[in-house]
Amino acid sequence: MTGNKSCLTEFQKCKGPKVTFGGNDKEGQTKGRGKLIKNQIVIDDVSYVKGLKFNLLSASQFCDKGYTVEFTKDLCYVKHETTKEVVLTASRKKNIYVVDWNTAKDGVCLIAKGDSKLSWDWHKKLSHLNFKTINKHAKEHIVEGLPDIVCKKETLCSACHKGKQQKNSFKPIAGDLSTSPLNLIHVDLFGPVETPNVGGKKYTLVMVDDYSRYTWTIFLSKKNETLQKLPSLLKQLQTEKNLKVKTIKCDRGTEFVNQVIKDFCDQNGTFHQLSAARIPQQNGIAERRNRTLKEAARTMIAESGLPMRYWAEEINTACYTQNRSMINKNHQKTPYELWKGRKPNISYFHVFGCKWYILNNGKEHLKVFQEKSDEGIFIGYSNTSKAYRVLNRRTLHVEESIHVKFDDSTSVKEVTETLKEVNIEDRTPEPSEEVADNPAFPTPAPNPLLLNEDEDSEDEEPERPTQQLTEPDLTWLRDHPPNQVIGHIRSGVQTRSASTRREAMLPCYISQMEPMTVEEALADPD
């Protein structure tokens, strides 16, 4: 109790008992209660007694609130009952003990320490409310009926873990894990995309260098194409930088965990690091780059109005521009500068989907007064030469040319509106430096059937496309129960043609005559 009202915080007026003090039977009335804060020491439930000249601490109340009070000849110690930690010390002066606030432990709140059973009982009564909120209620008296306790979580609550457990957070790693290019390569695959691109591709293989954050994208028709494309690109990068790939980091998809990738890693001394199952955060660099590329492509589709089948061109353009514009936080440089060793020049960048005029640079025989240029739509940058990729609106072919002029006066959607219902012929992609598999197709020869009718082309026979042999597509089959196999498991697959041949042989074993007696049947050689 205290007679100084100004030293109390959160004071609440209330009428309490009278306190007698002094030799003349003087009495003081209790006017209220509050908190006493001194040198970061907090004492709750301190009574304000008007007329009291000294501050008094009750040893019995300390004991009631879960503390042990020990007296010696010269000192008094207030200790925590469980931990035996000294929280307050008082020195003896004549016949009284005076608290030395300077020796008290910082941050001590001298309120009741509830026992373990009481804490867990209230935890369950409050529908497994966390102990931090329970302590806040007890300390600030937000509710009535809750005892002044401090709950401490000394053991785990199994019911809380079964009902509330969440995934662990993945904090970013400070600093740079790689010291040079190709130290660590992050690889991931996204797809299938619902709408195949104009080349029939549905998947995108994304590869990121950990040191520079330089990114490569490869477009695939099937997942199993990764077995050929990924080792091929890694070999190209090793030749370009004259360095070995030390570590490849990817998930546990079958396109990455197979004998082909294992043989490549064994031959090159590369460590194949896999993320844990169903934890994509462990391959977060590649996963985050997937999201960045898809968001950029989605934005360009919305802005340009191009049909959805051009998504690979947008991914290709996004990868090209981000390599030259994004900033690596660890080095404050672009991925292009960290990989190539020089600053990128982006003065030639233009808006995706804008209108262009392409010069007919000798690819067609023009008459004297025939137009020299065609209108086109800008769809990206070439990865094999210094050129722009432009969709020719007349021939409906993608061309790569440097002889182009752009027109910013026409809106992007107005230019691309006429292409939404046009089917474009597929062309064979070519490998490139930055995007190993070009997302659409290279510059093809113009189709004579699409030329103007007034051209003198009746003497020229249209060139017939050559038919090339292609390797059969691989099909991955696994985990088929043996009991569902009809026939011997090592026998070949029975086809309809094999059954037809067997039926044709059946008449050879059938008699050509119908015997009337047993003797005739035995005499028949068939």
TrEMBL record:
GO MF, one example: peptidase activity
Region described as Disordered: 420-500
PANTHER family: RIBONUCLEASE H-LIKE DOMAIN, GAG-PRE-INTEGRASE DOMAIN PROTEIN-RELATED, TRANSPOSASE, PUTATIVE-RELATED
Regions of compositional bias (Acidic residues) in chain numbering: 452-462
Domain Integrase catalytic, chain residue ranges per copy: 177-343
Keyword Hydrolase recorded: yes
Biased composition (Basic and acidic residues): 420-430
Descriptive protein name: Integrase catalytic domain-containing protein
A Pfam family the protein falls into: SH3_retrovirus
Superkingdom of origin: Eukaryota
Keywords per UniProt: Hydrolase, Protease
Gene Ontology biological process terms in this record: DNA integration; proteolysis
Keyword tRNA processing on entry: no
InterPro entries cross-referenced by the UniProt entry: GAG-pre-integrase_dom (IPR025724), Integrase_cat-core (IPR001584), PolX-like_BBD (IPR054722), Retrotran_Ty1/copia-like (IPR039537), RNaseH-like_sf (IPR012337), RNaseH_sf (IPR036397), SH3_retrovirus (IPR057670)
